[in-house]
TrEMBL record:
Matching InterPro entries: Znf_CLPX-like, Znf_CppX_C4, Znf_CppX_C4_sf
Name under which the protein is recorded: ClpX-type ZB domain-containing protein
Domain ClpX-type ZB: 7-62
One Pfam family, short name: zf-C4_ClpX
Gene3D superfamilies hit by this protein: ClpX chaperone, C4-type zinc finger domain
Binding site for Zn(2+): 20, 23, 43, 46
PROSITE patterns linked to this entry: CLPX_ZB (PS51902)
Organism encoding this protein: Ktedonobacter robiniae
Source domain of life: Bacteria
Amino acid sequence: MLLLVTKDGVMSTDRSLARCSFCGRHASEVKHLVAGPGAAYICDECLQLCNEILKDPAPFSPQALELASRPPVVVAAPQTTPTPDKESAPPALQHEPHRVITLEVEQKQQGMTLLLQQLCYYAQDFEIHYLWIRPPFPAGFAFVPRLIFSLHADTGAQWAGDRGGMIVARTDLGNDPEHTVYQGSARFRPLPEPEVKQLLVRAADPLGQFETPILPPWEFEVHIP
């Protein structure tokens, strides 16, 4: 049963709001939608994808990484009153992307892989979401250093260094003891102008200067449709 709470605290059980918890599609958009506990659902296509992941012996299969990196599916109850302005909206609602561009480009070097997943546009800034697959950090590290990004647009605009972000270890994404998956984001401001059609993205590991040989920056050409 799908349970939602409206703004006035009334519980809703409207099954027309049901969506696949993995891809976000409604029942009318898929062949089958299987109900789980609470508001959890899974469609036939995502179920097939999960079966393929289980059969794949690779610890970091592209299907597993793509599925785990999808944004959470949030089912909201219908609004009965006008949406509040941005100043009074909760912080979580203020930072919902209004445009998401799928990248899925990767590079490998010296036993590490950097996968750029998404370019997300928000009201005042934008973010690059990525997966960093590398050997585990040795004991003694108090934190995981974030990658340093530098962006150059085809219009000449530049973003030297990000303005915040996050990185967390995702031990649930693999079972290879030789590698750990880190999921991160880098935030930039201001937003690219509409004329920007291509970004040169450079990313550097701050500890790469201590590697032998020195780890060069990753470079990606990202096209913006």
